[in-house]
Amino acid sequence: MTTEKSPQQQIDFTLLFIMFLLAIVSTIAINSAEATLPATLQAINFSVKQVQWYIIGAFAVAMTMLIDYDRFRQLSWYLYGFGMVLLLGLEILPAPIVQTIKGATSWYKLGPLGNFQPSELMKIFMIIVLSRIIADHREKYPNNTITDDFLLIGKLAATAAPPILLLIRQPDMGMTMVFCAIIASLILVSGIKWRIIVTAASSALLGIGSIVFIFIKFPDFFLKYILRGEEYQLDRFYGWLNPYEYSGEQGFQLVKSLLAIGSGELRGKGYKNLEVYLPEAHTDFIFSIISEQFGFIGGSIVVSLFFLLIYRMIHISLESNDPFGSYLCTGIIGMITFQVFQNVGMTIGLLPITGLPLPFVSYGGSSLATYMVAIGVVLNVRSRTRKYMFD
User: Fold this and answer.
1) Tell me: the pLDDT tens digits for 39-86?
2) What SS3 state is found at 261?
3) Helices marked H in 141-266 — which ranges?
4) Who's near 185: CB < 8 A, 6+ residues apart?
5) Which residues make Cβ contacts (< 8 Å) with residue 307, sequence separation at least 6?
6) DSSP designation for 171
7) Helices 286-319 and 13-33, interaxial angle, to 10°?
8) 3-class SS at 107?
C-alpha cells in the first residue's frame, strides 16, 4: 500500500534550504571579492549578477520539476544529440561566434548575456543518457553475467567517448575529468561485478602512473604527444608540483591561494578585510577568499554545507524505487562531489589547478544554471518517489 502525497508535499525542503544557504555564501563571498578585481572588472557588480542567475536558476528548477523525469528518459538520445551538435559547433564555427579563453575553445559568445559553455549542459545530458543505458540494460539482462557486464561497459564507453574526445580537443582537461567522474560514479552503482571494476580501476591507475613517469622523465615527449603542444597545461603541473620555485608565473595562483588561506588562520581577518591579491578571486579561487576572511571556521562551514548537500542527495537516491531515478541522482552526486573536491583541493595545493569553479558558490552563469537544473532533477526524483506504508 502506498501513501499518496501531492507533488508539493513531496518537495524536499531540506535540500532547498541548503541551496538557500549556499546562495547566501556565494553572494557574500563574491561581493567581498569584487574589491580585489582589476579596475576593468570593478564596474561590473558580480554579486548582483550572481543573484540574478540564482533567480534564473530557481525558475529552471521549477521548470525541471514540472516535467516527469521519466520524460527525460524518453528524450535522452535527442538531448544527447543536441549536446553533441553544440560541442561540434565549437570545432567548425568561426571566431566571432566561438570564444577562446586561456587556450581553450569552449565557449559561445552570447553578446550582452556573456559566454555560454555547452559542456556544462552536456554534463546533464550525459547523466541522463547513461542512466537510461544502464536502466534499459538491467531490464533486458536482469541476471547479469560477465558477458552482459562487458556489453554494458561497451555501451557506456561508446556513448561517452565522442563528447570526451571533443573536450580533449578544446582542450578542457578539467571538464574531461568531470565527465570521467560522472561515468565512474554510475559504473559503481550499475551492478557491474566488482572484480571487473577493480581491474578497470587498477588499469586506470597504471595508466595515470605511466603518464606521470613520462612527464617526469620525458617532458618534451609529454608536451608534444600528450598535451599536443599546449604548453600552458604543462606549466600548471610545474606550478602545482613546485609552486614556490615558479611563484612568478606558473605557481603564482597557488602560492597566493595558500597565503590567503593560511593567513586567515582560525577565525579569519573579517569581512572584506582582504590583503592577498588573487586572480580569478570571484570564480576559481572563491574558497580562498572565504578562508582568508572567515578562517578555518568559515571554510569548514562551506565544506559542511556541501557534505549536507551530498548526503541529502544520496538519501534521495536510496529512497527512490525507480532505478532510472536513482541513476540520475548518482550521476549528479558524482559530478558535484568531484567538482567540490577538485576546486577545494586545487586551492590548498592537493590537486593541480584546472579552472573548475566551486559549485553554487563561484561566479558563473552557465555553470550555476547547470547545477540548478541538476538540483531540479534530484528534486524531481524525490517528488515522484512513492512511499509504501510498511517500508
Assistant:
1) 666 667 888 888 988 999 999 999 988 888 889 999 999 999 999 999
2) helix
3) 146-169, 173-188, 194-217, 219-221, 231-241, 252-264
4) 330, 331, 333, 334, 335, 337
5) none
6) T
7) 170
8) strand
Residue 235, amino acid:
D
Tell me the per-residue pLDDT of 261-286, one tens digit each, with 9 for 90 and over. Answer: 998 888 888 888 888 888 778 888 89
Contacts of 187 (CB under 8 A, 6+ apart): 153, 156, 197, 200
Q: CA dist 221 to 218, 229, 238, Å? A: 5, 10, 16
Determine phi and psi for 285, rounding to 5 degrees.
-110, 35
- How is residue 5 annotated by DSSP? -
Q: What is the pTM of this model?
A: 0.89
Q: Which residue has the cell 538540483?
A: 375
Q: In what order do the strands lie in the sheet with 115-116?
A: 98-101, 104-109, 115-116
Q: What are phi and psi of 356, to 5 degrees?
A: -80, 130
- How far out from the chain centre does Cα 285 lie? 15
The three-point CA angle 152-154-156 to 5° equals 70
CA 121/CA 228 separation, integer angstroms: 26
Name which of 378, 324, 371 is nearest 129 in CA terms: 324
Distance between CA atoms of residues 29 and 50, nearest Å? 11
